[in-house]
Amino acid sequence: MTTSDSEFVRNSIWEHVPEARPFVTELEEEELELTNGECSDPGMYSMLSYGFMHPVFRPALEESTMETIVHCARLIEALLGSGRPQVIELVSIRVTDHLLGFPELWERFAGYAGPHMRFEADLRREYYR
């Protein structure tokens, strides 16, 4: 059975960034509450933004928390290397554009970025000149 893109993103965050697990759980609990127990999937955009990017990745970059940045880099590589077009687009919109929009964050992350992320950043950089 194939997992949806949303499940793939959720499982990847859970696997690669243990620091994000409380935020993922909180999002799922909120979604269950909002849907009266019918759905626990907040969607991949919310999951990446509010389960990873804002509560974990950006603070790790701002505080230079090396271990967490390494976990985040592994997640980003897994998502970009997934071959899933919607997931790659998600990373472009939620992660790459954020990093390139704040050059100081990209500078802190660039040394940790894997080949997929460096390629992605090179593709998107033309929009930030």
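(ticket continues) Second input and output from the same batch:
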Amino acid sequence: MKLNMAVLCDRATVREGLLHILGAGVTRCSLALPGAPDLDLAILLQGEGLDDLAGRHTMTVEIKDSEGQGVGRAELGWDGPTVDPSAAEDLIPQLPVAIPIRAIQFTNPGEHTVTVAVDGHELTRLSVFITKAEIPGVTFRMA
């Protein structure tokens, strides 16, 4: 199994096996801290053979701050079907995934690392730099 793409973006959805992406390539985000970025993680996995995505698999996405402290974690599991080779001679097996990052609260500014692993094997690391939103005349505080 290989990773064809992993990208932070404004929005990602999956419909009918297609990955739809808006505003891909986010590397910086300004937030009222603590706060959640309005981002998704778009991932496209590809099987290296018809049976590569078959069986039970687990994808883990971990986000850590610059000090290595955990910010958020998502774990997704799937049971892929076995494909009859005679019925799928032109099939390229792939799995599109959209993970909402907007549900995760970030508390510290600085570089954050997003790690994507499948079945315990790290496939990629992405970085996003979080800055504290500074709006003149406006003070952010927790109620």
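Agent notes: Residues 60 and 117 are 5 Å apart (CA to CA). The two ends are 46 Å apart (CA to CA). Closing as not reproducible unless the customer responds.
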